[in-house]
Every structure is written in structure tokens, then in C-alpha cells.
Protein 1
Amino acid sequence: MGVTDLDDGIFIHTFKDYNEDLRNLATSFVRSVYGGASDPFYRPVPMDIGMLIYQFSNHGQNMAIFHIASVMYHLISVVLLYNLFKKLQIKELHVFILCLVFAVHPAISQAVAWIPAMNETVLAIFSFSFFICSINYADTGKIKHLALSALFLLLAFFTKETAVFDAPVAFVMIVFVLQKNWLGKQNLTLYSLWVICFFVWYIARLFALGKTASLPSHVFNDMAHRLPLIVQYIGKILLPFNLSVFPSQEDTVYYYGFIGIAIIAASVFFYKQSNLRLVFSGLGIFLLFMLPVLMIPRIITEQTYEHRIYLPMIGILMILPQTTLFQNKLREKQLLMWCIAVAGLLAIINFRHQKSFTDPLSFWTNAVETSPHSSYANMMLAARTGDEEQSKQLFLTAYALNPKERYLNYIYGVMLQNKDSILASEKYFLAEKNNTGYYGCDFYLARVAMQKNDLKTAITYLEDFLKKEPQSPLANNNLLMLYIDTGQPEKAKARIKQLQQSGIHVPTEALKELGM
């Protein structure tokens, strides 16, 4: 597997300079992910993990290393989940079956196959470790378990902001599943420690981002819009037959979810000895882990990625031992064989689904097939298909769906320039700048200006572009030659000094022209 051209290229190739310098292992804790003032993401641990993997991957050239690491993290989380379920007093055979299903489940294959989703498996490792250590402390009162609980909670916080729901989930496990006294001395100590860990993370985040983690005003409207996702995700957990690499709420059917809910409800009802306390505890854990998914602002993304099911799934798995699916007349060996057969079917679906993550063309082909109403998916496939007529039709579809789709005008403009339709591309780059202000348009608008022989405007565009991307060799060399052609030798010499200091090659003809 390689990259999909959905964020993975950014973290590996665009962040190349950042990943090269191991001193940035500390820097990750004092900056946002993308480094922008408006960037709300603070995830230093995944950034550092990605940086370390980058060092072992021949500086981002060997993508297999990233995928091996991702599989390894998933296997570690499966082992930890096994230990966690045993701590929650689930029967050992049932624990084995549940973890086997979790290990091969196709609905969470995106968390393993898609490099940016590695956040989920890393978060699961720290979250499961936190739950285990918190339970150990509630059982024994030993300080080492308390200290480890704090360490893993902090690591979870610094992995992804959704870890704020880890403490409520731990409370459900300790108080409702294991029935510990919620006002017991050891539990009160745990609560205090959880609050301290939260404020340590919150202050670090505030220092790094320079702003508080406030909820946007439209969060409740977005949550109301996303509530049906609960049904869709339950369907993908119990009947994973409508998976997508780039799922959208609009294009995901609900009937699998309703069938899945009916199956769970009926199997709980017909098992007369169901422990409803455990059933509702599992449901509560599922919903708590679903909350951050529902709270994602629609302005950030409309996609309903399947890797987000990774943690919520454990709540549904906890319910299954209280149903006739597990509690029936089958002997243990028979139950095990049936469950292995189901796991085998899931593994086959998983294997087939993972093929869509092999390369950008496979990825975006699946995205368009499964989310046809996504303007972004149509645009991305249009830029990658080798069929000119198909590409044109996909772009027309993307425009019809959303003419202001981010980067749509930019990518189409680039395609036109690649076909030497330079002047025709201008209106698309100007439209992109008007819609999103994307600085990449300036590089291509400079080429349009040069085609018009408007060298002064071309210089302005390149200067603006280099303010955002100062290491671009082509843009620097183009600007240097324009300075020479327009009779600005002092600016040209100053540019050459900057290029030499940055280690960027300076054309020999430019040096000769300036007598340097």
C-alpha cells in the first residue's frame, strides 16, 4: 500500500522539513498540527510518532514502514482490549471471540490502512491502558497503578482531543460495570487525578494554540444533523456491507443500522437472563465515544469516516455477551466455531475493502462509487483518472454539486495549464482565490501573467507565493529570472543570497548575467 492523496501526503511529504529535524519532537507540544493560527488541532504525540516512523522509512520513501507500524499499533490495541475485557469480568471465551472480531472487523480497517487514521489506534492503546490501570487502582489502591493511570490519560489527551471522554467511560466501567462505590476513597482520588490531567493538557493546548478550546456556536445544530450517524455506524458494526473509504451521511443507507438495532434488541429480549445493567453500560460507552464524532463541526468536514468507529465499537461488543447471539444452546466449541466462521467472513470483507486504499486511483474510484454526491470525491478522481473525457465529466459533476468546493477551481486550473491552456486557466485560479484564498494559485497566475507579458504582475504573484512557500526552487528561480529581465539587479542579487543560504540551486546563467 502507498498513499491515498487524502492528508497522508501532507503528513509525510509536505511536512518533510519538519519531520527531518528531530528537535521538533519537543516543538510538536507547542504548536498546532498544521501550524496555522486558525488550526484547532493539537496532537503532539501522533506528530512525534509520525516523525520517528519517517526516520525509519528512508525519509518517507518506504511507505511500507508506515503501514507496518499501523498494523503493529492495531495488534497492540487488540491485546490491550483482551486484557480490558477480562478486567470487566467478561467470560474468557467471550473475550477471545470479541477481540477476534475486533481484530478483523472491516468497519475499522480504515484505521489501519489509512496512515492519517493511525491516530485512532494510538489513542486506543493509551485509552485501553488508562482504563486497565484505573481499574487496577480501584481494585488495589496501589500508587503505581494510579501513576500509570495518569500517564496514559495524559498520553491519550496529547494524542487526540476526543480523549476528554476517556474519564467518563472509565467511570462507567468502574462504577456501573464493576459496581465499585462511586464515592469510595480510591475512586475520589481517581476523579481528582483525572481533573488534574485535563487541566495540564488544557493549559498546554492553550499555550500552543493561543486560544481556548471553546465549542462553536453552531455545534448543537451540527450535532442534531449528525445524530442519524448513530444508526449508520451501528449498521456498519453489525452488518458491514456498505463500507466506503470516503463516506458521507447523505450517501450511507440506514436500513443496515435499523436491522442491526433490531437484532440486538431482539437478542437481548429473548435472553431472559440478560444483565440490563451491563447492556446499558455498553450502550453508554458507545454513546460517550460517539459524542466527539457528533460534535465535529460540519465546516471542518462533512465526511463520516469509518475509522471513528474504532473506540465506540467496544461499547457494542460489550453488549453481545448479554444476548442470545452468545448465550444459547450451542456448546462452547460450537459457539467458537461459528464465531470463527463469522470472523473469517469479516476478514474476507476487510481484505476486499483494504484494496481500495492501495493507491490514489483505487481510493478515489471507491469514494465516487460509494459517495456519488461528494463534490470533493468527484474532483479528486477527475484529477487522477487517465481518461480525458471521464475526467471532464467528473469535473462537471463536481461543479454541479458544489462550484465552491475547496480546491476545485485550483485543480481544474492546473489541469488546463498542463494542457497548455494557460490563459483559459486564469478565471479558475481567480475563482479559487476568491473562494478560499489558496496561495498556490499565485504560482500559476504568475505563469498566466508571463503569458500576457505582464512581468510586473508576475513578479507580484511569485513574491506572494514565496511568502507562503519560501523553499520552492522553481518559484524562486522564476522570480530571480524575472528580476533580471525587468532590470532589477539588486533584487536579483539579494534573491541569490537567500537561495544560497537556503541551499537552493541557483542557475549558472543567472550568476553569469549578474557577474557573480
Protein 2
Amino acid sequence: MAGLIAAVVGGIVAGSIGGSVLQVSGPAAGLTVVVAGLIDDFGWQMTCVITICAGGLQILFGVMKVARAALGVAPVVVHAMLAGIGVTIVLQQIHVLMGGSSRSSAWENIEALPSGVLHHELHEVIVGGLVIAILLLWPKLPPKVRLIPGALVAIVVATAVAEAAELDGVDRIELSANFFHAIGLPSLPPTVPGGEPWVDEMGEIALGVLTVALIASVESLLSAVGIDKLHKGPRTNFDREMIGQGSANVVSGLLGGLPVTGVIVRSSTNVAAGARSRMSAVLHGVWILLFASLFTELVELIPKSALAGLLIVIGFQLVKLAHIKLAWRTGNFAVYAITIVCVVFLNLLEGVAIGLGVAILILLTRVVRAPIEAKPYGGEESKHWRIDIDGTLSFLLLPRLTKVLSEMPPGSYVRLTLNADYIDEAVSEAISDWRTAHEATGGVVAIVETTPAKLHHAHTTRPRRHYLPRSIGPISWPSRDVSWPPRDSGDRDDADASILDGVNEYHRSGRGELYPRLAELTDSTRPHAVFLTCSDARIMPDVITASGPGDLYVVRNVGNLVPTDPADQSVDAALDVAFNQLGVTSVVVCGHSSCAAMTALLRDGTDQATTATSHWLEHAQDSLAAYRDHHPARGSAEFDGLSEADQLSIVNVAIQMERLTRNPILAPAKASGALKVFGMFFDISTAHVYEVNQNGIVRPAETASTL
């Protein structure tokens, strides 16, 4: 009856206050040995006082916000915990299903299994089997029928069949006393069972309070973590759950009930029945109260084998094949298997603790044994090597890492690929030192970093590096605000030093990555498009199109113009090579903001050419005239709030696109329908690239083609 009190209080109080919406609380097997020992040592009344004090300590845990530490349990351990509980349930309840009784340990249940099978009670098996059959068939029925919980239907049907068939030999539930008569406020006895005053046992009593609080807290939090894995509803607020569990223990102790914890079996049954809100847990307590006080005769009609059949199905459902496959695929099957065995043959808390310890040990092993693979390519005698390193790169890896690096032949080309989730300073410095020494032998080192964890993040003595698109690989160059590498100015001025230092940095960081890619293009190249753009140094065609070596045939001139004067063959020569020799069928005209050429064109207008620039810009007079005549592309640009020079730049792109479509060199491609002409505008202030057509900047919803 003390257990029923704890079940009612756990359902109503913890269900109302707790932070786990679908967790159901009540008396738990995990505290059985502890509570039995407390009753033996201090008596029942003092045990209730200990339960009250333990609940107060749990509330303190919740207020201190330490409960979220439960999330530190590895998911594979939680999955194995659920599976272990499922196996334990099946081993216990299969004996009840066959008309016997469950043993006190999993090993005893296994040993008694052959005898139970040979001496089973057929009528018990029929009743329990009927429940199992209904539960297995219920999910296949129409949704409207499944609105009624299958577990409820199965128990009702099995009970009705047992009654209709007059199976008097079926073992049924027994309630030995009236629920309300069992409720009573605890009192402090003058002495404990040994005869000593309880005051003299304060140390032992305090230890009992701490033991109950810790075990109840850990078991409740582990159950909450496990239940979160079984549903897609709101996640647990662990601190609030701790306060709810503590409140339930205070009330249960005051009413004469057992300690309360979150119970994985009740909770998983709740989820399997289709629970959606915390009212499911509250009603769990309400129904127990009603059946234990008002409907005891009805409860005593239920066959134990029917409940055993229900629990066996729940137990099997806790062992999920998807979790086993995941553990195998991620290399955590050993953790999964060890945790299950320990939960089944020891207990929940010891099993989880051992599983967590094994998971931590395997993690440390993986850190020390992070995969390092070094192999030559191009033949055993080749001086081209590839080293692949995966995982967590910490100082624990240094002995193996430095050994592999030291085995690289002097003067060889080494491609070092880092697929790391973490790199500490020790590894960064070791790689940096080896790289310097290897390049001193005439070798080349290309470092490819495929994850956000970078060497330069750990190695803080070096400046921030800049990265080009993944298609090119990481290449760093000196920034004007840093001095890396140290400059030896000698007789050079700053400009010379900057360029030559950049070349040196390229040989250190870029050449090794770029070399094998360019080696494939030595004899031929197949660019995708001609990219006609301005000579402005701020435009980076490869970067803004995420292109790699050999992808673009780049043509630059002031103002990205296509001359129409037959005497000027500068652009025509490039188009001839690209379209007639290389087979390119696409051409892109890219203008940009803050273009000095467009600004000069607006300023000088139609003045007679007096300089090389103004003479060249005579090729842009059509663009200026179209701009002043309110070309459609200008209207779009005005809408975007751009300056006059930027508006002219967009109109100029549209005009150059028209010229390209009329270019005689492109006539064959145009006639075959293969010619594609695109326009682009690069806004330097926002680093945004816009598509441009004859109507100006293309809005995202209007984009009809992909550059």
C-alpha cells in the first residue's frame, strides 16, 4: 500500500510540477535494496522522514540548476539502458506469463526458464498470449479504432475472456488493504530498531537521506533522458523535473509512501499508449487512486498473466534495431553491449555508470589512436605522398604523428589532409615545425583542411589567414596590416617586398595544393566560360564564381568593353581562341560598383579623346547614350538606389551583352543555339553578385537562368 501511495503521489505531484512532460513517476525497483535496508536499520516511520528530507534535497538540486548534467550521458549508453531494461522486463515477466513468478535476478530468471517452459500453465499462457496478439495487431487497425489505447483494450479483453471461460486457476491481482487506511503522517520514534536513540544515529540517517536523494535523482534524470529519445514532443526541463521529483518525495513521505522516482517502464508504456501531454502522467496517479480505493474488486479481476503479456511487449519495444545498427555503424557497439549486460545482470545505476566509463575509455583510446594513414601515390618509388589524419588531434597523438611525419622522404611532395574536429596547439606546432624542416630539404607540403577546426586556430602566433573557395583550396597571402613572414627589406621598397613576400607565402601555402591540380591541365584546358570583366583589382573572378584553375577564360580591360571598331581586335582575339579553339559556348560580362571607367565616362561625356583612357572609352559611348536615354536597365538600377556611375555600369553590361550577340566570331555558336550570354554586376560594398539582363538587375524571384 505504501507503493500505491507513492504511485498516486508520483503521478499527480511529479506529473504536475516536473519538467518531463511524459515521464510517469512512482516507486522504483532501483531503490528496493536501499529502502529495505533503511526500514531494517531505522524503522518505517524514520524511513518516511528520510524520504521527506531526501525530497527537500532534490528540490535544492533543482534550484541550484545542476540537473542538466544528466545530458552528459552518451546517447549510446541511454539507448543501451533502455534496451537493458527491456530485456530485464521480458526475463521477469515471461515467468509470470507461464503461471510462475519472477526471480530476484536476471541470472536466476534465465536459469529457471527451462523449468518454467516445461511446467507452464496453459490457461495463463493463453490469457497472456491474447494480450500480446492484440497489442501486435492494434497498430494495423484503422486510425479511428486506434484512438482507444491498445493496452487498455488488451487488458479488458483478456480479463473478460478469463471471466467468461471461468478460468479459476488464473492468478489475479491482490490488494491486501484499503488505500486510505494506509495513509498516515510519520512521527519520529524515540529509538531505532536496535534500541539506540535516533539522535545518536544522525550520521547514518544523513547518509541515508543523501543516498535516497542521489539514487532517486539519477534514476529520474536517466529515465527522463531515455523518454526524450522515445518521443518528438517537448524536451525535458531537468531542473524543473528535479523540483517535481523532490516535491513528490516530500508529499509521499508525509503520507506514508515509498520514495518516488521517474520510472522508465511506466513512462515508456505511457509513450507507447499515445500520450501527448503531462495530463497523461497526472491521470496515471488519478486512476491508481480510484482503482486502489473505490474499484478494488474490479482490479482484482485482472489476471497477472495479462499484465505480464503487456509488459513483455513493452520490453521488446525498448530494444530498437535502429539503435543497434547505429551503435555498430559508429563503432560504439562494445559500449552498447556492455551497458546492456551490466543493466540486466547488475542494476540500472551500476550498468549506466559502467557503460559511461567504457564510453569515456573508448573516447580516450580514439583520441590517442586517431587514424593516421600515410601512403605514396604514383608508385612505391614516387616522391608524392599523401597523409590523411582524422578525428581529435591532441598532444596524445604526438608520438604517432611525429613518427609518421619523420618517415617522409626528403624532397618529396606531401599532401597532408586534416579531417579534424579539434586541433590543439601542440599538434599545430609539431606540423608547422615539420613543414619548415621538410621544405628545407626541397620538399613541398600542401595542407588541406576539410573541417572548421584549423591549424591556425590553435597556432595563435601566426596572423589570420585568408581562404579562397574550396575548389581552389586554402591559399594564404600577406595582409598589409601584418608582417608574416618577417620581411628582409634589403634594397627593396615596400611594394617589391610585399609582392615577393607574397610569392614566398604562395610557395609555402599555395603551391603544394595548386600544383597537382594544374599538372592535370599542363597539356590542355577546357574552360567553361569566357569571363569579360574590368581591370579593377577588386574583382576576383575565381572567387565570386567559386571556380577553380582552368574553369574560366578571363578577359580584362578598362570598363569591361567589347570594341566594335574593326581596327581593335583585343577582345575578338580572345573570343576566337575561346570559341573556335577551346570550344567554349558561354560568355559572361561582369561590371562592378565604384568603377573608375564609368565615373570618367560620366565626367568627360563626349569630349574629344585626349588620353589613352578617354580614347579607349570611346567604345563605351553607346552605353552612355543608352543611359541618358533611360535604358530599361537604368530604371532597375535607380530602384535599387545606386549611384549614377553604378547605374551606368549596369547599363554598360546590358549594352556589351548586345554587342556579343552580334559579334561575327560568335555567329556559329549563336546559329546552333549553343551561345549563352550572361550579365553580372558585382557590388563591392556588399560583396554581392547580381545577375543582369536587358531590364537591369534580376530580382531573385525573376531569375530564370543559373550562371
Protein 3
Amino acid sequence: MTMETLTTIDLNAVAQHYNKAAARVHKRMVVCAGTGCMANGAMPVFHALKDAIIKAGMQEFLEIELDQHDDCHKIIHVTGSGCQGFCAQGPLVNILPEETMYVKVRPEDATEIIERTLVNNEVIDRLLYVNPVTGEHNRGQLDIPFYKLQKRLVLGECGHVDPEDINEYVAHGGYFAARKAFMELTDVEICDTIVESGLRGRGGGGFPTGRKWNLTRVENSDKKFVICNGDEGDPGAFMDRSLMEGNPHRVIEGMMIAASAIGADEGYVYVRLEYPLAVKRMRKAIEDALNAGILGDNVFGSDRNIHIHVMEGAGAFVCGEETALMASIEGKRGMPMPKPPFPAQKGLFGMPTVINNVETLAAVPLIIRHGAAWFNQHGTANSKGTKTFALTGHVANTGLIEVPFGTTLREIVYNIGGGVTDNDGKVTHEGFNAVQIGGPSGGCLTEEDLDLSLDYDSLQAKGAMIGSGGLVVMNKQSCMVQIARFFMNFTQNESCGKCVPCREGTKQMLAMLDDIIEGRATEETFHLLEEVGNVVKMASLCGLGKTAPSPVLSTIVKFKDEYLQHIHNKHCPTNNCKALRSISIDPAKCIGCTACARKCPVKAISGDKKQLHVIDPETCTKCGVCFEVCKFDAVIGFN
């Protein structure tokens, strides 16, 4: 299939042509080529599989791209895909149509995969995923609980289609919704459909998308913009990145529909500089859509134009806030502005502008294609559809997941996630401590919240928020004061400094948290920390400052006793706070080998050979060297 075929904009013909070629495929091998798997060595695996096919004498059947060869009906199609979600198990190789998925594949496995699986249809057990709870081998995504228990709508094609092949996207129904929006629906009908669907912004605020579009649509202006916010900066979050890498055309199609709804003729995709693969694939997708006549002038013969640009952000977390993001696009310093006016009235370059995040826009083509009723049958009364989450931390199955709103935390952590792990990575049935949801803007959920419905309203009532979708699971070996400090340190560093409450308040909160974990805090410190947090929350200019205290305030409520132990008893219950550790040598285990005394960098350990050794607490820096060198587990006080 050549790109020229698409210039007629006959999407039906393109889909039929591609599907005819795909029907000739005997075996399809899909190598995950998302950032996670690429970092783990996916490309060497990809090339090793191709080489192994050639060495096996099957090069005449090998096709990297689906070209039309009517004389061949046993094509082996080897392709890369976007993120398949199961990041910790990568590199991943899916073999279709058998639905066999191999995990943690290495280049040296390629020959065996070709000889045993591709040629003889044998399954290689050692490359299958092993369920950490049952010990069973699961053959593929249809069997693995991590996949089986999800509802992948927005992520449905990620990991299955080649993100750099516009033909394959069209063959899967791509750009048909955009054509419908430009050729069949009025701007009012598009907005009404999105309103009826109940779609809310997936970037954190949860504002109804249809209402936002309507506010921009009714503005009288010769120039309007649509912006895709891909400035995903939450620690541990990679939902938007994976969508841009895995299905960039879906994001572009969502932007096109938004542009048709509000009357825009130009758009920007604002992507973090740290996402080079997402930038590369978004730019290629835009170029291919332009060459195909899908983007550009006279879209679908509608006499309307839409041009889309990709801009790389410099990595400032505050640029995820819409007014700061627009300032960055305009070439100014990325700093938030007071609202009103809202972007719908005065946005990019002073023109009416709609800003939606990547996941929100990726859901739009599905709604236009299948209808509002289809979309809002998923989720809860006020939180329709599904939500992607980046599941990380002390959980057996880490990765990217998608579940309907209303799914409980228990379902995610214990069923999809496979259970909580200890610090050695082993599943433990009683180790759950908390989940930080929504990243540095979110809050903390504890064991009593395991059966809480994850939706906008339920989380708000608990002092938390969906945010962009970060889910960090923590076991009972985690110090919650240190967790609060981690997020406060992040937001303090990322504060743009424009308003005093955020600039100075976060700095003071961080200093008080340091006092607590280093043993200098008093009861007054605790109360002042909470007071300053509430002031920062109320008085800050933008969303970054208003939500910056959330991790601290929520842990103060949920883990007050842990804070007070740090303050009153100068004791960290998890023994993670270095300054509060009580280090000693167990007289029952010490044999006087002198290894600890010889290695101690500050000479804090004394004792004669074959005699009990002791540690001087005034001199000891609690560096842990003695714990590491002792072969008899005699040093007490380290985890």
C-alpha cells in the first residue's frame, strides 16, 4: 500500500485494500516498541527475529510491511507496536493468531521462537508469564489477569497496530469519525454528542469536555485553536506518552473532531521534551496524514482547513497548567495567569482555544464512531467511560492499565496488579499500606479505602483526585512521612515562583518535613505544617499550588500517629528515616570478627577481637556499612 493511494481520501477503499493484504498473513509477530520495552532491548529482539526467519530459510515469506503480493499466501508479518502496557515484563512478543505472548524476551531466544513456535506451533513455557500468586503459566493476553480484567477502549489498539502505519489505522476504522464530523455533523451536533457521552477531562480537573467545547464554539472569532496537552509530568505517570507512542493517529483524529466542533483551523500538540519517541511518532503521523490529504486544506472536501504542529516543552511541570502551556507555545516563560478570562474566550495568541489532554482526545473518535450511549454505558453516573492508570510501586504487575470508572482499588491492586509485594518483590497478603493516587496533586488512600469506587466524586470526598492517573502502591515498609516529603520536594522544585503562597509556602512545608524526618520537629511543627498546607491550598494562583499540599494533608489525616511517632518518640516505625535509626550490635550474634570496626568510615565501632563490639551513637553517621559487611546479622537497626 503506497501513500499515494490515500490522496483520493477514499477511506473505505484504503481499509479494504489493507485488509485484503492482511488476510494473506499466516503468522503475525508483534514486538512491543513502547519506551519501556525499547529501553529493555526490544529493537535487538525485533532484528533477531527477522534474522532467525531468514536463517530458517523463510525469507521469501517475510514481510515487514504489508505489500500486495497476490502470488504469496503464507506471509510472516513482523511488526513493532506501541506500548502493550505490561512494562515490567518487557520486551514482549505477541504471536498471532494463536494469541501467544512471550515475556522478557532476549535476542538469543529468537531462534528457538522461530523454530519451535513459528514452525512447529509449540509453546515455550519458560518464556510465558508466570502468575505470582498461583504459579501458573499464562499463554497470552486472554489468560493473563493483568489484561483479562481490564476494559481497554482508549488503549484498545495500542500494542496491536503499527503506530507508524496510517494504512493500518484506517483499516481499523481510523479517520472515519473525523470524516463524519467534517462532512455529516454540525458543530452543535458534535458538541451535543460529547455532552451526552458524559466525557470529562482526563488530565485531572474532570471538567465536562462537551461544555468546554461549547464555550469555545459560541465565541465569535475568525481564528481559533485546539491544543493537545501532552505535557505529562507526574512522577511515575506515562499514560499520555503511551497513547502518543502507540496510537498517534487516534490523538490527531480527536483533535480534528474538536477543531470541527469549535471552528478551529489550527492546532498544537504540546509534548514533553523527555518523550522523544512520542514526539517522533506524532510528527510522522501528522506528516503521513498531510500526505494522505486527511490534514491540511479542504479536509475531506469540506472547504475547511486544519493544520497541526508539534511543539516540545522544556520539561517544566507547571506547563501542564493550560495558561502556562499557552504562554510556552507563544515563546514566553511558562507561568500561569489568573482566570478569567478563560482559554475559551481568550487563549492562544489571544484567540478562543480548546485545550484537552491526550487521553481525552483519544476517546473522542470512539464516541463519534459508536455513539454517546455506547460510551456512557461504561463507568458511573457522573464519571462515564474508562480511565487509564499507571500502576507502579509495591505491586506484582506494574504497567499501564485501563478500567471503567467505578472499579475498586482492591480490584486493581489485588486482581489486575497481582497483589502487594515486599521490598524483595515477593507477594505478601498483608502488606498493603497505602496508594498515592493522582501524583503530586493527588492524595493518599489506605486499607479502609480498598473498596472505594474510583471516580471523580468518590475520590474528591476522600480528599484525593484522579489526577492524570498515577497509582503508586506502597507496602507497610514505606515511611509515609518520607512519601509526603518526596512529592513536596517535587512540587517545590517545579513551582514557577510567580505567587508567594506556592513559592514560599511549599519551601516552608518542605523544611518542616525535613525537621520531622531528621528529629528536630516539635508538636508546634506538626500543627504549623498543617496550617501552612491549608493556606497554600487556598491562596495559590494555579492548580499546581492549590494541589501541592494534598499528599501532605492527606497523609496527616491518614497517618497522624506515624507523624507523631517521628516527632515525640524520635522514631520512624518503618526505620527508613536515617536520622531516627537506633543502631546497635546484638550481643548474642556478635563474634568479634572486627569486620564492622575495620570498615566503619568514622571509627564509631569499638571492641577487641573475639569480644563484643559496640557502636558509639554520638559518632555513628548511620551509613549502613557495618550492616552490609556483617556476615552474622549482628547489626540491628537497618531494614
Protein 4
Amino acid sequence: MSMGSFARDDDYGFSDLGIPIGAPRTGPPRLPPQYPTELGPMAQDLPPEARWQLGAIAAQNGYRAVGGDPWNNALPERPKPPPAPGERSLMPFANWRAEPPKRTTGVVASEYMLPQSPTDVGLMAVGGPFGKAIATTGMLLDSSPAEAGKVKLPAGRGPLPEKPNIFRQGASVTRAPPPWQEMSVEEFTKSAPQPPVPHQDISRINTYENPKLRAKAEALWETYPQYAEQYPEVGPPALMEKRPDPNKPGKYLSMKPLGEVPYSSFEEAAKLDATPRYFFEKKLLPQVEQFQKDRNTVQREMDLHGYTPYFDPAKRADVDPANYGPFPDTRVEAYPKKAQTQAKFDEMYGTPEARERLQAGYARGKTIEGSDNWYFMKQLEDEYVKELGPQAGRDAFRKEFSGMMAATTGGASPYDNFLMSHYANYLSKKGERVDQRAYEMSFPVGGRFASGNMDQAQKYIDRGMTPFDAAKNPKRSDFDNAYLGNRMSGTMDEQMFGAILPGETIPEWYGPATRVLHEEAAKAGTDPRGFQDVAWAGLKSIKEEAAHAEKVAKAEKKKPGMGHNIAPFESDYGGPMINTINRSIETTHRLTGMPREEIVRRGLVLKEIPMYGLGAIGAGSVMGNVARSDDYQPRE
């Protein structure tokens, strides 16, 4: 497998502070929905470093309507009216709007204190050109001199050098409440509990707006009709040099290469690529790189402002398994034949601790909106039937959707999985081979283990797209059949097996592991597939929460009081698979201008045209991850 398959230079996601991953820190934090966004011109001067610092401070309330600020003053439920003449106070600093910086030096903290209404509380972190916070303080301004404790001073702005907790605003000085550094993390993050955001309703994700981003994205709509009928052209790859392994002389590390190596001919570079020290990585042509950037902008605007999904996620339904069965039982097909081996792995995988972790994941998953019915795809199946007829439509749905998704899902996120699956079908329909190396694949196809996945796709095509062998490839078999309505297909993927044996990703024997899943599903009063999709979301959330707590603890250990700079924990679960389909339809429509109905017919069903998009969730959010699933072979 080419190391280029690890390349994710076109990734787009969000960090804990709401800052796009893989992009410069030039954007503001996500704004709380109750805050207004129409600000005065001074906010436009805020440099990117300062806006990023503000994001770190504003993170204490998690960018959500929480009902109170750090000092437990009630926040307004809707934007306040403009202040009366002469009225002055400080607005919460999470109000900053996404505006381009007009300058990056000479920032004065108090220049960005915008009067709005009495007794508002704000936090400020001002970053210099190098992103270093140079002043952090709380501030309370009020129209009443008695309450604010104002004293007359010569006109001026900014902090008083000798008294860092006092700010000069014009000709007045005001004293802040206790500095946030003196508060505990618990006090600082205390807020009203919030109901979960329904993942089914994605027509409006946030209640605040970024007019500039909206205008920028809308200006890009329908600007790439040349990519409506065919994928972007593929340029020559970059030759990358690996970093030597300091602990193993003569060996090289897979990650963080030393850099790109120029070459005069492809033949010369190919010889180096064949050695352990070098590898080819996909490199986009300039026009395709611009397409990537514009796609990211369109996707970011969709994530912020929402969109109307083509398929209503709230109406998702299961396909009828009677049209696809009978299904193999991986508990039997992938179970050891020798009694001694059976007993060994039944005991190893079925410990009380393993079962407790699975049940804990299921219990957590039930609290996550949209965690159930992840595999429900009848809305897509209906499109196949409408276009091709009942028999041919369902046959194509089984071969080209569920089967190809299973073939290309090794180690991939749902979005990468879908894009690879569609690309494989697209090439196959044109009579081209799909077993390409990652650097040969058209944008935006790629991701973790892309080359290996496309190899599997070619093998799947070569054998006539027949169902996967439940004994030799049980994970792909279960993943495939779960889409086809088989409620007994509980996929034992990395997330699920990690609950059985923490730290492990693949069972030595699949059958004994999935038997435990089936037994725990029965205890929970549900079927194995229903147990898996809910427990998967819950286990992921538990793992993420533990990682978040560790991150906060490290921040506190490094400098007490700094843990609040990390946003409160929130799972990045992306909802059911139909959400991925909807996002791709909308992104493709906005970029190419092709009508949505045509994209569904010619793209999703007939595989005649490309599909674009990018997932909002990271590569670690892998539902149905079947990495190394072909390692399962009958052995005794």
C-alpha cells in the first residue's frame, strides 16, 4: 500500500475550539446562538491571532446557549436592541464576527470593547502577531458610576500598566470582578444543561449566521460545471522522503515525512518509490487545488448554516430483508471448529468486564440523538427501484451500494468510504480498473488505506460482485448485510471489539467475538444490528470523553486554571449513514450546478457522474470500520 494513502491534505473538520482543522487559524470561534453578529467596524480590525485567543476563552461555555456567563449572570435569550444614547457596557467577546483583519499589529485591547447594554460581562484575550496572549482580564462597565466605581482620568485607552486588572476606557476606569484565573474549572464551566441537538434535523444546524461566509460560498455555486460529468484531472504525484526511525537503524517512519523530493522523470521517481525510503503522494494540479479550497468553503458554509436534506433523515426506514436473504450467520461461519479453540476464545472475549463495557456503550448511545437505525437506507433503495425496476433496482442496490461500501470500508470514515465506493463504481461502469494507488485517484477520493480498499473493490468486481464469504471475510459480510435489512448482522468492528479487548482492533476469531455481541443485544432487549449501531455511538462518545478529560487534566497540570481553555466535551458523532448521502448530494449540486434530482439519478443510481463532498467528522469516527478484515481465514 502506498504511503500516499495516508495523505489527507484536503481534510476539513473542526477542532475543540471550532477552528477548521487543516486550515490556518484565520477564522473566529463558533459563536453562541444567542449572541448578535452585526457589530461595528472596530470588530473588523480584530487580527486572526486575537480572534483565535478569544475562541480559547469563549470556549468555557462551549459555544452554546448556556444561560449564564462565568459569573452566573443570566445571558439574553435573543440579541439585545442597540444601546440607548450614552449607555456603555461590555459585550461578551464571543460575539466577534468573521471579518478579515485590516491590520495585524498595534492592537489595543480596549479598542474592541463594544458598548451594548448595562452589566454585560465579557472576556478578552488579545493576541499579538505571533498569537501570544498579552492581556487577559474580566471587565464590568455600567452606566451607574456608583456601581462601576468609575474615576476620572486623562483620556486614553488600554490597561493601566501598574494595575493589570483595571482598564482605562476613554476617560473612565472600571475594576473587573475576580480574574478568571482564580476560578476553578468547575466554577468556570458551570452552565445550564442543554438538550442534545437532533441529528435528524440538519436543515438548520445553528441559529447564528456568518453573512460574509454565506456570500463567499454562494459566489462559488455552479462555478465548476466542468466537473459535473467527470472527476478533476490527476496530476503527477509528489515524491516524498520518509523520516528515519531513530530507534531502528535502516528503518523509516510512516508519518511526518521529511519533505518533497524533486525529480526529472517519472521513471526515475518510480525507482525511488520502490525503495523503503521514498513514496509517492497525491499532488493536486493548481486548478484542482483551487477546486478543493472552494469545496471546503462551500462545505463550511453548509455546516454553519445548514441545508435542506434531499432525503429526510427523520423518515429513514429499513429495506425489506426478504428481498435479499437468506443471510449467513457469522457466529457459525467464522467460529472455530476445534472445541479447545472454541473454549479458549469464548472465555477470552466473554469476560464480565467486556460485557459490562458493551452495555455501558449501549446505555450511553441511547442518550445520543440519531444513534439508532444507522443502516436504514430504504430511501436510497427506492431510487434504485424507481429508475431500474424492482428486480434490477434491488440487485444494483445490493451490488453497487451495500456490497461496494463493504469492499471499500477498511479503516475509512463514512464519507471516505462512500466516496471510494462511488469512485470504484464510476470507474467500473467506464470499463476501467479500480485497483489504483492513492496518488492515482481523482480528487476528492482518498483517505486511510485507500489503496488497499480499492484493491478489495477490484477483487469484488472480478468475482462478479457476489456476497462476501462469511467465513473468510465476516466483518465485510456483516457490514454488507446490515444495509440489506439483516437485523442479525451486528458488525464486530474496531470500536466494538475495542470494548471487548481494550487496545485491540481485530479479533483473532470473529465468531466468538460476535457471539458476545449477540448475547449482550438479547440482554438489552434488541437485535444485534440495533445494539451495534447504538453501542458504537456510545462507545465512541465514552472514548472521546475520556480523551477530553485527559486533555483538560494535562492543561491543568501544565498551568492551573488553564483547563477552561478547552471547550466542554461534545461528541462529534455524525448521525446515520443517510446524512452522508445527503451531504454529498448537496455539495455536488452547489459546486457543479447540476439539479439534485439529476445527481440522485445519474450519480447515486447510475454511477455516471462524480459525487463530491467532505465529512464533518474526523477519520476516527469510523462506523463499520473493517480494516484488515481479509486477515480472517479459517485456521485451526
